[in-house]
Amino acid sequence: MRRITLIKGDGIGPEVVKATVKVVEAAGAQIKWEEVDAGESAINEYGTVLPQTVIDSIKKNKIALKGPVGTPIGDGFRSVSVSLRKKLNLYANLRPIKSLPGVKSMYKNIDIVVVRENTEGLYSGIEHEVVPGVVESLKIITEKASTKIAKFAFQYAQKKNRKKISAIHKANIMKLSDGLFLQCARKVAQDYPKIQYNELIVDNTCMQLILNPHQFDVLLLENLYGDIVSDLCAGLIGGLGVAPGANIGDDYAIFEAIHGSAPDIAGKNLANPIALIRSSVLMLEHLGENEVAARITQAVHKVLEKGDTLTSDIGGHGKTTEITQEIIENL
Ligand code: NAD
Fold first, then answer.
1. Which segments constitute the Isopropylmalate dehydrogenase-like domain (predicted)?
2. CATH for the stretch 1-95+243-331
3. What pLDDT, on a 0 to 100 scale, did the predictor assign at position 45?
4. What is the pLDDT of residues 235-244, one digit of tens each?
5. Are 301 and 101 in contact (CB under 8 A)?
6. How far apart are CA 246 and CA 135, in angstroms?
7. Ligand 1 center from residue 286 Cα (angstroms)
8. Which residues are designated catalytic?
9. Using a 6 Å cutoff on CB, does residue 153 contact ligand 1?
10. Residues near 326 by Cβ (< 8 Å), separated by ≥ 6?
């Protein structure tokens, strides 16, 4: 039995986590879940959104499956997801964006992998008021983290037989910070002559992704661009309800969907569980449980192709529990 930390999170988190656990167990994975509370649900009991028990549990088990956690806008506590990524040095955020059968979208055959630096950049959240009416937010870019994420991207591309890496930047304006990110990527690229390497400015990248997404293979981005561009990419394959993700470090990994806590549909049995179910597939592959992972992927594809229980975000009228049940029946 493999022990895995389970964080239900806020909003639609508990609904999609419950669905995913059911699917993973029905598929035959030998997992013992260790449930811990983080996010708004933890405040009452622990007085904090990120209790030490969560960190201790992940450090012990090495792997976690996590639902989304809500973060107040403009003030209030710091994002739990961002804190976890920093505390555990989960420096790589991997977001595979692949078209799915039966899901209507602008394009067919999209197959892009977003590799996002996950620990620094403007996401460092180092902000202060200089004088009333003037604030400063620091963008931290280091040679160490930029080289590490570039190496991760090239090693991933080599292992998965991907052909091209595009480093995405705004070094025309942020010459020092994005300039350093690019310098590190270029240096690492020299060690991988079989993988094509090019560079694109982030605003142009957004337009190109809409006009001609098939030109892209692996995208390498610093933290904030990766965050924004991966939501855009999710839109190319049917939206946030189907797009999976993983936060990977040298010692620990947390698997979670790209989407947030979706307060607009929380508690209504409307959430699409497929994004987190596909994140659990990434987790099972990470654990070497490739057969179970493939079984889940096949079942998801069958259910999407049939289209009877699709949730409303992908054009159907199905409920979270209905599509989950159908996936289980197709395992
Ligand atoms: P969101 O991803 O929660 O929702 C954006 C839109 O997509 C909403 O219309 C929502 O209904 C829809 N959507 C998202 N997931 C869906 C699913 N599985 N099925 C069907 N529809 C889905 O983004 P937001 O509204 O900008 O953020 C809400 C909260 O989530 C904020 O507090 C934000 O900080 C937090 N957030 C957390 C994480 C995380 O924990 N990793 C990630 C992003 C946002």
1. 3-327
2. 3.40.718.10
3. 86
4. 999 999 999 9
5. yes
6. 33
7. 25
8. 123, 170, 203, 227, 231
9. no
10. 303, 306, 308, 309, 318
